[in-house]
Amino acid sequence: MRIAMGIEYDGSHFCGWQAQKQDVPTVQGVLEAGLSQVADAEIKVVCAGRTDAGVHACGQVIHFETSAERSERSWVYGANANIDKTISVQWARPVAGDFHARFGAVRRRYRYVIVNREVRPTFAAKRVAWDHRDLDEQRMQQAARHLLGEHDFNAYRAVACQAHSSVRTLYQLDVQRQEDLIIIDLEANAFLQHMVRNIAGVLMAIGAGEQTVDWSREVLETRDRTQGGVTAPPYGLYFMSVEYPPEFAIPQVSPTRLVW
């Protein structure tokens, strides 16, 4: 039987999603240990998108194979009883054998949240990025338009990114301000390693007046990561949701959902 699950987590406590050989806490490692207890057998999970250390998720989707017969409620509450409280299984359901959390995804959505004020935040310190510069969100939105559509985003990915192709289609890149918060919403068919954080870093430099509005396009056209801006910190990044073909009936996270 193949089971799909929706997961949310506070990534500030983990060394990223992917289980590692070293004895360090990862979301995958904790989740697999908890699910294995529920199934009374070893469980290995596949996720829609691996997140880096410090990155959070509201709508991560996973799947796994199991011969254990449990109700949807038992998978949810059993898993949550056996995992760290910074991870929460939101739903579980059987899916067809051809469902794949990673390769079946057609769109992914991320949100990057910046506290923009002179004084650093406290309560949300590891759930937001902080920039003391006076950022102009309108300049950031103008610069964002250069990145919409299908492009080679090689200049916006990590040097160590292992994706075979750096061509991606960016469907949405919106910047808005809510009092002292600047929120960047992105939607694409897929994302490269550090792509969102590198886009955020470029937009923040433009918003601060350190670069022109056209700099986002100029960086894109170089296809050279060394020509880009500083990679923005991980704490402001949220994996919001994943979209699959409708026949799989995978629940969607509301795009207006609060992230803390």
pLDDT under 50 segments (min length 5)? none
Number of strands: 10
Looking at CATH, the homologous superfamily of the largest domain is Pseudouridine synthase I, catalytic domain, C-terminal subdomain
Question: Which second-level CATH architecture of the largest domain applies?
Answer: 2-Layer Sandwich
Compute the CA-based radius of gyration: 19 Å
> What share of residues is helical?
10-25%
| Ends distance | 34 Å
Total count of helical runs of at least 4 residues:
5
Q: Provide the number of structural domains.
A: 2
**Major pleated sheet:** 10 strands, mixed
CATH top level of the largest domain is: Alpha Beta
Helix and strand element order: EHEEHEEEHEEEHHE
Mean pLDDT over the residues: 94
**Strand residues, percent:** 25-35%
Structural class by sheet pairing and helices: alpha+beta
CATH topology type of the largest domain: Alpha-Beta Plaits
Q: Name the overall outline.
A: globular
